[in-house]
Amino acid sequence: MPTSAADPAAEPLLRIAGLSAGYGKIGVLHGVDLTVGANEVVALLGPNGAGKTTLLRAVSGLLPWSGGLHFDGRDLSGAGPRETAKAGLVHVIEGHRVFTQQTVLDNLLLAAYDMPRGERTARVEEALSYFPEVAEKRHERAVALSGGQQQMLAVAQGLVRRPRLLMLDEPSAGLSPVLVDRVFVVVRRLRETGTAVLLVEQLIEKALELADRVYALARGSIVLEARTGESDLPHRLEHAYLATTSRHT
Amino acid sequence: MVESIVLSGVAIGCIYALIGIAYNVMFNASRVFSFTAGTLGMLGGILGSLFILRMGMPIWFGFILALAGGALLGVVTEIVAVRPVLKSLDQHLYVLSTLALALIVQQYTAIEWSTEPQPFPRIFDVARGGFDQQFWLPMVACAITIVGLEVLYRHTLLGHAFLAIAEDNYAARALGLPERNLRMASYALAGVIGALAGFAGGQMLFAFFANAPLLTFYGFVPVALGGMGNNRGAVVAGLILGLFQQSANFLVGGIFASVAVFTVFIIVLLARPDGLAGASVRRRV
Amino acid sequence: MTEMSAAQSRPARASLLGSHAFVAALPFLVLLIVGLTLPLFAGGYWGVIATRACVYWVLVTGLNLMVGFAGQLAIGWVALLTLGAYTTSVLAAGNVLPPLHPYLALAVAGAVGAVFGLIVGLPALRLRTFYFAITTLGFATIVTQIALAWASVTGGGVGVPGPIFPPPFDSQWGFYYFCFGLAAICTWMTANIAASRFGRALTAVRDAEVAAEASGISKPALLVTVFLFSGAVAAIAGGLFASLQSYITPDAFTIDLSVLFFIGVLIGGRGSILGPLLGTILLTVLPEFAAPLVAWSTFLYAVLLLVIVLAIPGGIADLLDFKNRRPLESNRAIIPRPDLLARLLGRDRDPGALTLEGVALSFGGVRAIDGLDLEIRPGQVHGLIGPNGSGKTTTLNVISGYYAPQRGTARLNGTELPALVRHTRARHRIARTFQTPRLVGEASVLENVMIGGTIDGNGTFVESLLSLPRHRRDEAKLRETAMLALATVGLESLAAVRADRLQHSELRFVEIARALMLRPAFLLLDEPAAGLSAEEIRRLGALLVAIAQTGTGVLLVEHHADLIFDICHHVTVLNLGKMLAAGTPAEIRSHREVVNAYLGG
Prior knowledge:
The complex is a heterotrimer. Chain A is of the alpha/beta class. Chain A has 10 helices and 10 strands. Chain A is globular and about 45 Å long. Chain B is mainly α. In chain B, 76% of the residues lie in helices and 0% in strands. The radius of gyration of chain B is 18 Å and the shape is globular. The relative contact order of chain B is 0.21. In chain C, strands 8-9-10-5-11-12 form a 6-stranded mixed β-sheet, sandwiched between helices. In chain C, strands 4-3-6-7 form a 4-stranded antiparallel β-sheet, with helices on one face. In chain C, helix 4 runs antiparallel to helix 5, helix 5 crosses helix 11 and helix 9 (197-207) packs across helix 18. The chains are: A alpha/beta, B mainly alpha, C alpha/beta.
């Protein structure tokens, strides 16, 4: 699985090996292997309950898990959300959860919490430049934004850190088609500027248009991995989603 | 007469309000109520008397040390009594751990300091009477705290971070905010506010270990009536409580005043378990 | 397992139960013997200590039910001790009425205690944990202040003399035996409650409230009973305390004392009788061994409490639970026995259909359910599927009464099911399981399943208290039925194991066994296959089909498409709160819109 422009044999930006995680006694993910190369957009697809959100939470350190995580040449296994974010691995969580009682600007400044004071404003402006309609409302409280604008704000929060790899959890959820396109335009722009993206999505067609590679996750394991150019992909995906284990044994 | 009721009522109401705010700050940081809020108030008075009267330090220095003592107890509370139980699914454990810690500090104080109320120093060397410092010190302390918190929450990134943790803990963690340090800092802040209440109120309440259970209860009433985590509600409810209590004291005498306050409190709380104003921030579940 | 081997194992099980009961009773027997023979080897001083321990224990038996079993943190319960002490003393001394005989005074104190126990405890039904704890503290302070102020009756700061009980209880050892006798009776009574459906219901309300409601347990009724009992015994303990002290003043009733009782329960461990008993004895006796540290006793109690909470939250009871330290077999398989269902469920009913008509429900601005019609027929497995957020679990919650629909109704056989009165669903024989298993972790698997049969008991609280025949019949039948339910789901070998030691998949089947105890006309399952292996899912499916075959209507909310398509007679697909499609599994699989809804786009 070569990365787009670099040496095919190079170490990918993100390498996950044997990731197993769950909630309490319930095991959700069983030994997942996944890689993302620098400058790649990788889509993670799968039916509800497959474990996609759990996977992102594990990678960014919001959940305990077992397995190995290598990012940008460093071993980040067991790192918490603060370390992964500082290392350049940023997770934008599902559900456009922004701090509704605070202004757009404050929401972004919080994302820049760890940075030296002088840099904060510059980074915030940089992130806002991707989303002009949110930039207009910078002094309004986040509760005044529409759901779509809040989602864009959440992505902007992720961008404040200038991530090497941005993980987006269903950024299109609850958004109108127009706004979905806006978000995806941003994702394309990110890839061009050298940010890799791991995208969890429900909208298969849109995700396939955008991504370089795709993984399908079902019932806690990877059931398919392919490049998006490959033929017959939609059919193979459908099959992977609805396949019954009993029919295969 | 009325003037006396109003002065003492507002003064004691400010002390109760400050303890209520201490409860709220801890609650906003951790979704947990701690029994140590009243103990912090007690400590403010005890430490003030200890440093200034017994050890002869200058007043401002004793004041700072007393606040530092409060911050210390706040941090200890977070580390020892709150953090270990937050991970557990058992909701009730924090009630017990904070109760245990509060009792440990109270009992130690009772034994090592005294079981009798000890004098608290005059802060400003002015004759007693009229609008005396024992009344306006708590009011000033309350006003400074409210303004200070307002500045903190509105205009500093640290304050914004506190608000973020309170509103949506999970999103704050995901954003990479240092959740644990922020919680400790909140508890330290609550410690300072509680100790401030005790120090400013020292001339009314003296340096007395039994202030702890008193403030634990009366400091919680503003929280219960004002709404969990709602500081403005706590101030309003605290003032009402103080005035009501002092009026009842003058009209029917100490014991019946307590009964009256308690009865009204229970009735109002049963009618509105979430307080009269409701919680300040609707937390994401 | 054939019928013969089942019969062979039955006598073995019975004797195991018998020997188990003896082992459990042994510590009590030892304490009983030590207590009865105490005057033979202990001097007068220790007699007083022992009497005090007995008096404290009488109060703590009631407090244990409130705090340890029901989980209500009544930190200020000393208010009831104060009340009982003063009531008994004042009535016996004749300050208000002509002097009453001490026994009568004690009995009246008990009645007064019951009433005030109810008053002090009642806020627990409305308030959060911390709020309730604070109100009890307030009560304790108020009662002491009233005792101080009402000098004409209580003697104010001067106090009143305590009652003196008539011979043979007027001597020191005589009084000791009186207190010991009462302590023994209270121990026996609360042990009976602990081993009754009331005790189990209390722990269910404490640890798994939604499951308790689904099993038909009404929290208010249960708690009121406990408050009355606890208040009564605490007040009686107060009367004994007053007699022991010979003279009582308000400052004998400090918060320290209240904390002592409270810590005694918690050191002992929740859900146990022996633990708090040992804890109370320990706390009463401890200051005597650490004589110079007497002033520090409350300090040490608080340290002990902190250590317990942080290090051994289960308390002494947990330390003594040797049974649950034995390792469990590692490769356990769950093998249900659907053939036992006929015996377990019987075939007695045609309950009609369970229907939802035009139900709509919004949370804030979000339409969780947007006009839904659903019909679950007896004898069929009805699947309910849909993407996340489609309203599947919300629908189940509406049927089981957790949410009230803003429009439309839920009906059982034409009669409307009232919303929000959750605990009545059990009486309608509507049972359910939960997305995350809700069980009492500290109780055994068998006890958890027996909780499911709580409403089938006929005995009253008093009958359980006194272990009267009807209570014992109820218990025996309940135990037998629960073992049968466990055998049906294939888990009877784990009956005596603490529930929190089980694997996730086993917990799911325990929940099903508990639900089956209601002999349900309708069984609602919330994603039961989550976290199960493929083999376990197959067995679950076979079990559910068999349950439906006995006449139960099964509603299966699920993500696992395989399970749905394999066993459902009828499938409804939800999307965004509306019905997207309904039909047989074959029809749904090929339905274009359904496939799209799952795949998005």
